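Two records follow; treat each independently.
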Amino acid sequence: MARANTDEDVLPYYPPRARWYARVFYLGNAIRRRFWLDRIHLQLPQGITFAGAVACFLVPGLGIYVRGRKFWGRAAALGYGLLSLLFLVGFGYPIGNFAFGLILAIHTSGFVYYCGPVLQREELGARLGFVLAALLAVGLLFYLPLRHLVLQYWLVPFRLNNGHVFVVQRQFPAAAIQRGDWVAYKLGADNDGWTWDTGGAHGAVHVRSGLGLGPVLAVAGDRVGFSTNGFTVNGLPHALRPHMPTSGEITVREKQWFIWPELGISGYGNTPEGNISGMMQQLAVVSENNYIGKPFKQWFGRRQITP
């Protein structure tokens, strides 16, 4: 005869559910198996596992949360997120660099806190050495490669002499650049500097290599003419820029742009204006090979490019 289930039939034990950070621990175990580290039996201190160490090394503030400091673990994660946002908003400014330092400190603190059982039995010098080693490991293995990827493929800050910073997007294709777009590019990228020597008595004009930023005045196929009243692009007049030639004409070749450089010029002796304008005209022809990226018009509400 069948009988109904009662509370006594219910098992008193339920397996605990996986935590939200369990997948990171699974990643640590996978790394251990991938490099055959599971065949090496290490006597780790009680409360420390290889998967846990990898997880706390990868996830900022996780070590504080795992050790039972739930509130401070959440506070560390929240602080990390807010500082990351501050770093992006102040990208290239001192405030951004300050936020980056605190981000590195929070990330390292979580890992060090997880490794607390190891440090409790050590002297002060050994603890400080471990913290320094952890700081270097997190910086060199995590943030240095991340910084390289960001600067190489995503964003780069461009600081002008007046202290203003432009954030440049690296992914914008050079083929999509049109007349009027602002462009960041390498100036004198083929060598340490360019020298314009007329062979006259007044010597040479030397320009050091560096970075340039400015609007594209003409693209491939455009004709640029110079006169005393200004310059023209395909017959359309424009105001004369500093140190522009007052005569002549050039045609922009394929995969080139015409960008008049903005340079701080210091002279020694009586250098003719023709020498300076000749060098500036050379620098104004920019190859797509020297292209860095296109600045954002706005960066977190901060206007960068004036229409």
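The next record belongs to a different protein.
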Amino acid sequence: MLTRSGHDYEPLCQRWRELAQANGWACSVLAEAGGYPILQIDHVPENGARTSRSLHRDPSSIYLSAGVHGDECAPVWGLLFWVEQHAEWLSRRPFLLFPCLNPAGLVHNTRHDQDGTDLNRIFHDSSHPVIRSWQAAMAGRSFSQSICLHEDYDATGIYLYELSRQTSRGEGLIRSCEDLIPRERDGLVDGREFISAVRHAVEDEILMIVGEELQGGVPEAIYLFLNHAATSFTFESPSEFDLARRIAVHRRFLDVVTNPGYLGDGSER
């Protein structure tokens, strides 16, 4: 349960550092931005391969991130609370996690970073210091899935971008979460067509999306899908709903997306 402002970054960092230390995970500073550290949490299981090549081919390896837009605070806390609950499960597999990629934006409740940049349109741009550091951290890695958590000020329900090279899981994922917050009913989100709150795109469609819809901008999820992840999910909650419900729905989404056999009973894997 969150007992302070959702935009309070220092205690967020402190809890992540304590969590990493308690579980033997590597916690480092990816970069400094606007006077704040961007934390990176990295883990290789004790019985896992220690060479980077074999590690990054591990089919259980996952990527998790939140807070690339600072005015979207529920994902940041939802990710923390979920990891706290499932630390034992996570410790059995390799993962790379960024708790908040835009701390200055979080503190000041703004979408953009301290320089007015929307980071989620420049993940291809190594001239930006944070993105350059992020790309270096990603070098040589591959993941079975990447999960990016977001919110949408204009949304009236939850929705999902799913980039994959296989059959869509989107409908089942949304259905498993909509008892907490209903799914978005509008078939157009930011001018883009969704089917029952899911937009499923395959590899051949991605360059068209970047060129025609994003005017050349490359979001985190698309960069991950094209370069590092077999499947990439971006989950969105409506930011005008109650904060506790939004945090809860992000926790639920993480439950179901990381565990295809999830039955909603909250049990450990």
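Discussion point: Residues 9-258 form a domain with the Aminopeptidase fold (CATH 3.40.630.10). How would you locate this feature using only the token line?
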